[in-house]
Amino acid sequence: MSTSVPNPPAEGAAEDGETLGREVASGDRPRGVSRRGLLGAAGAGVVGIGLGAAGMAVRNRQPAGSAEPSPIDRAYPFYGDHQGGIITPAQDRLHFAAFDVTTSSREELIGLLRDWTAAAARLTAGQDAGEIGATSGAYDAPPDDTGEAIGLPPSGLTITFGFGPSLFRARGKDRFGIADRQPAALRRLPHFPADNLDPTRSDGDLCIQACADDPQVAVHAVRNLARIAFGRAAVRWSQLGFGRTSSTSVSQTTPRNLFGFKDGTANLKAEESALLDQHVWVPAGADPAAGWLAGGSYLVARRINMTIETWDRQSLREQEAVIGRTKAEGAPLSGGEEFTEPDFAMLGRGELPLIPEDSHVAMVHPDNNDGAQMLRRGYNFVDGSNGLGRLDAGLFFIAYVVDPRTHFIPIQTKIGIGDAMSEYLQHTGSALFAVPPGVKQGEYVGQALFT
Ligand SMILES: C=CC1=C(C)c2cc3[nH]c(cc4nc(cc5[nH]c(cc1n2)c(C)c5CCC(=O)O)C(CCC(=O)O)=C4C)c(C)c3C=C
Ligand SMILES: [Fe+2]
């Protein structure tokens, strides 16, 4: 029998639901009591409230007197105006998966989205994927949760769903009766200069971005969503990431990428709502065919291998010239500190710009790209080595943009040709997804596309 208890109260999908979170108790649990049972009990009863950037505390695992809850106790609401995992403060771990839909039935696709929504709401609250739980079901049936997250707290898990161009139309066929609702901007990304794409790491009908502060929690989420999809969708490719390479909130320190540089300094941040409206969220009326996407965004994913062995043999001077910022502070080479605006006109020795024109920062800065900004949310990856003694390492680049035609494609085209950093990079995977707006209680993700 299940040790089921009522679900925790639904998250107050606050206006700014994504930046608010809720900490749920974990702690050691006795054998035979489901993860869901404990967390449900916490949600039902032990609700202490303390709103902050992190959210509401249910039960704090921190030592008494500590003001900041541990990130692993944090739970972000699944329901809200926007999906979680976009402006949520970037967690430390990623499991990203792209799926091929294997059914041709529209009803089965909708059923999958319903099931994924229900499971994602449970998982992000720190519960088992299914209502019965990993160890409480019938002895002769497969459990409705795989079990590896038993005892683990929510860990700040967010689950973000996206729809690829091929969901709408493949080989000229309207697969699910939604071809006329395909956004004009949702097309397969073009081939960029210096791309060396692996088709088995590219594209997909659907995607799931699971971010958490515990890798096991992120992997558990994707694994269970893939299990639930059986017979309707299958994993096409997936990518693990560690060490966020961006900050998406002013409350976060800037992390470093595998080149050893601070990455995320000039990123769009959750607190910059006017800029997010301009550069990240798709406005109502943006595309007459795709009203369902209002309040959503576009997710660009690029698996970018970094030839770190070559990079590591470059002088510090060369490395800084390639990036356009100092390695220690992340300050622009034109001077100041990390958050000083770069001055691309400032000249140095030989009347040359202090920030080289082919440096990465000069290439991608909004001043040099018609003002386009993006919300970057990438992760480092190391997928073992390649058999030639080189690490298969790099940056799994994720960016959320209002329109890839204005906010990604022109910039990527430009840097593929002229960016000094390109010499050390190889793009090996590529995908674009439309990310529907947040889910309302009682609805499923992307519902407006099918109604
Ligand atoms: C097409 C968009 C971008 C790709 C692809 C990309 C890859 C990439 N970037 C780094 C390292 C850094 N990027 C930095 C800044 C930065 N990068 C992009 C865009 C792309 N990066 C933008 C829009 C910006 C912000 C520019 C600005 O407004 O000044 C930085 C500097 C620190 C920071 O501001 O975050 C670094 C370092 C790598 C290693 C990489 C591919 C592997
Ligand atoms: Fe960059």
Automatic annotation (TrEMBL):
Its EC number is 1.11.1.-. It is found in: Cell envelope. One of its GO terms (molecular function) is metal ion binding. One of its GO terms (biological process) is iron import into cell. One of its GO terms (cellular component) is cell envelope. Coiled coil: none annotated. It holds the Pfam family Dyp_perox_C. InterPro entries: Dimeric_a/b-barrel, Dyp_perox_C, Dyp_perox_N, Dyp_peroxidase, EfeB/EfeN, TAT_signal. Binds 1 heme b (iron(II)-protoporphyrin IX) group non-covalently per subunit. Residues 1-34 are annotated as: Disordered. Keywords: Heme, Iron, Lyase, Metal-binding, Oxidoreductase, Peroxidase, Signal. Residues 254-440 form the Dyp-type peroxidase C-terminal domain. This is Deferrochelatase. It comes from Microlunatus phosphovorus (strain ATCC 700054 / DSM 10555 / JCM 9379 / NBRC 101784 / NCIMB 13414 / VKM Ac-1990 / NM-1).
